[in-house]
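User: I'll paste a sequence; please echo it back and then give the predicted structure.

Assistant: Echoing your sequence first, then the prediction.
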Amino acid sequence: MIRRRTFLKGTAGTAGAMAASALARELLAAGGDYRLSACDWSLKAKGPDGLEIARRCTLQGLEISPGKLGETIELADPAYRKAYKDASAKTGVAISSTAMGCFNQRPVASEPLAPVWLEQIVDATADLGCKPILLAFFGKGDLRAKGGGLKTKELDAVVQRLKAVAPRAEKAGVILGIENTLSAKENAAILDRIGSPAAQVYYDIGNSTGNGYDVPAEIRFLKDRICQFHFKDRKHGYLGQGEVRMKPVAEAIADIGYKGWIVLETKCPSKDRDADFRKNADYVRGLMGMKA
């Protein structure tokens, strides 16, 4: 299998995404190995205006949702993407990634429009100049059965659909990042079945801790099969004050040589969104040795 770093170096974005890609690269170069982003749903800041909110929260990026759903996702509209590009240029905040959280309620395995949406989000992500696409598998889309074990039929359908769109993702230079309730070894087996360097794991340290996994060990096991990280603590709004052991996580991320975005999916315990995100951002900068 082609290793992830080799794949990323060998791919080229579309001409329309060059400016956005340059901004992301510039931000990473200026800030060392890591830069900070946040989920637009956590910020309650969906749409292009969310980039200004991310800037106020001292973030360098924003992970964005697909917008309205129909036969086409809203991000498939060039005018909607242009609004994001214009907002990015104005604020200096990059689009770190896209996220198909809609698959929690309309699962990849069974949603009739899922194959079309997958193609559309691949093309939109490439045009926006970012690489990871979060594909969510929670709620109705969970691949783990309630009594334990895997939902074999649903998993087979997911593998088939992701395998079908993977060549398009490879050509576009983007990553299909699966995020779910499964263990690192179970996810690695899924990636092996898909058989594409464009299929990776989107690793959420809060979810994995809550599911009882050894997070630092899983990170070291998956290594460069991780495309991006969500940082959160499910039992506390502030990182470093809950159940996730943050220092061992940071050490594991450094050990695997990860360089890229860390995306906050944190809560707002004080109800002051901007202040709470700034507090978590400051904590992560200190933890990861990032520049302010």
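The chain has one domain: 4-288. Strands lie at 34-38, 61-64, 94-100, 132-136, 175-179, 199-204, 226-231, 260-264.
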